[in-house]
Amino acid sequence: MDSTVEVRPSLIEVKDCRQAYHKDANADLVVLDNVNLTLREGEIVALLGRSGSGKSTLLRIVSGLLRPTSGTVLWRGAPVMGPTDGVAMVFQSFALFPWLTVQENVEIGLEARGVHRAEREIRAEAAIDMIGLGGFENAYPKELSGGMRQRVGLARALVVHPDLLLMDEPFSALDVLTAETLRTDLIDLWMDGKLPVKSVLMVTHNIEEAVLMCDRILVFSSSPGRVASELKVPFPHPRNRLDEDFRQMVDDIYALMTRRVPVGPKTAASAPVSPLATPLPKVGTNIMSGLMETLATEPYDGRADLPALAAALQYEVDDILPLGETLQLLRFALFEEGDITLTALGQAFVNADVDERKRIFAETLRQHVPLVSMIRQVLDERWNHRASAVRFRDELEDHMSPDYAEDTLRTVIAWGRYAEIFSYDEEAEQFGLEDIE
């Protein structure tokens, strides 16, 4: 028997890719570092990771819309120097022209390529029919549902018959049922050989979506973005979410993505150079309280399997991971190997009344969130007990992007207010001790 394995031609090769943005006199903000990947004909590959891990940036680099700071990107063996023929993209936000009909939106890419009107109409009608929108050619985007608008976006990308289809979280703006229907339709077209593409590269933060659709999954770590793991999905299509092996792979990926989360106190060697060096996610006190209360009751009784918990709460990776990491940061839970477990402090918080909860929260904030302690110390030392938020925002931006700095500051404001550690004047953008005992 011939044991030779057919090696399909590569479409895209990314070698030692790095993307960084210069930040005035400060150190560069590195978004991607040492990223390598090869995409071959005949496969669907997922870039799986959390928001901020550089997945969408890499997609723009692959498309030729962004030049990497360093590294090489090859399209069929030739360096990518700009937007690449043979590559089309589908966006999360539909990106349709509201003043154009479905037919005109789908034709616009062909028109830009100089395709004659008669051929444009024929190809656009075929793409519209293929994607399940026959009869809606003359409708405007405002007359369509979200799912139908995304189908228009798909038809517009497919009508140019690209070799490579890039999809940037194409289902995340859709409701659960619509997204599931569109995923299934796409896979059916792919398996039947009806999609006029050779490969698909998609960005997602939905683990089940990646396992359901893709042949390979590249799991990204964050800060900076890197390919932390590459996984081959061995299941034939159509795939069953309830299959034991499918569920196990989802569990394994959750465990992989939580294994990198630090557990317990930081050592001196791993401590950040500055207390302001660690971004904080936008996680509110109400959602923290709600999750702890959920964990404390049946059927979890203090410990939950992350995939089961995420499914029950209809959470995705970008919901459950920041929440679990925040509870761990505050010592309310342990978060590792795909499980989340309430600590004794977390259980005490659940059992406490409102005032006691605030006291517990204030104490753990002071101990484990250096920015909170820093703000309170500045307020205590100043004669008028007030301090501008600009000072702390500027210091945060020395260590992270402006967006992360703003999110971190807003999180600290919300937490500090709840714990009654300080007040905050939104209009003046000032911290203070008014109404704080």
Can you describe this structure?
It is a single chain. The chain has helices spanning 55-63, 102-112, 117-130, 146-158, 176-191, 207-213, 244-259, 285-296, 306-313, 317-329, 344-351, 354-368, 370-381, 389-397, 402-418; strands spanning 10-23, 26-40, 44-48, 70-75, 78-79, 87-90, 164-168, 199-204, 216-221, 226-232, 303-305, 333-336, 339-342, 386-388, 423-425, 430-432. It is α/β, with parallel strands linked by helices and 437 residues long. The protein has 2 domains: 10-256, P-loop containing nucleotide triphosphate hydrolases (Rossmann fold); 285-432, no CATH class. The strands form 4 sheets. A 6-stranded mixed β-sheet has the order 6-7-8-3-9-10, with helices on both faces. A 4-stranded antiparallel β-sheet has the order 2-1-4-5, with helices on one face. Strand 15 and strand 16 (430-432) form a beta hairpin. Helix 6 crosses helix 7 (244-259) and helix 11 packs antiparallel against helix 12.
